[in-house]
Amino acid sequence: MKKKRVSKFTLGLMLLIILSACGQKGIENPYNWTVQDFTYTNQAGEQTGLADLKGKVWIADFIFTSCEDVCLPMTFNMSKLQDKAKEEGIENLQFVSFSVDPAVDTPETLKAYGDNFEADYDNWSFLTGYGQQEIEDFAKESFKTLVVKPESDDQVIHGTEFYLINQEGKVLKSYTGLKDIPYEEIIKDIKSIQ
């Protein structure tokens, strides 16, 4: 009789451990950087901001349309990630590309740029409508990344990461957005916080 109680207890404990492990959600060692409130203009000329993203998981990056090197592959990779997320049936997910050259990147310019990558604007916004100093400060304070537009050059210096942001507007993790994109890891991480 005593033996059965011990084994039932042990079985119950093991089941509890397994269930609690299965129920764990989230990212290991998240950054937990708070994205500052913003309201910018998207490729359709509409206002889009942090309030519109509340309750949604989102992926962000920093690009500009006249970029001569890293932005084209980054945007191609983001488009591929958008396709993979659709294939996985992931819903309530947004993609946000912040222009780091807002004086050049009008909503119309961003729309033409996004069209080249067959962006699905249902859940991908290309944002502009702010000053250069504002985007430089926003990138540094919210995403801990550098954005600098040298006075003597039309090419903007900026980071090449993709950022995972949770439903509360916290940056949890970053990934390379340029080459050897860890698509499976990103998809897994998105699913883990939904």
TrEMBL record:
InterPro entries in UniProt: SCO1/SenC, Thioredoxin-like_sf, Thioredoxin_domain
Q: Which CDD domains match?
A: SCO
Q: Where is the signal peptide?
A: 1-23
List GO molecular-function terms, semicolon-separated. metal ion binding
Which key words tag this protein in UniProt?
Copper, Disulfide bond, Metal-binding, Signal
- Domain named Thioredoxin: residues: 29-194
Provide the protein name: Photosynthetic protein synthase I
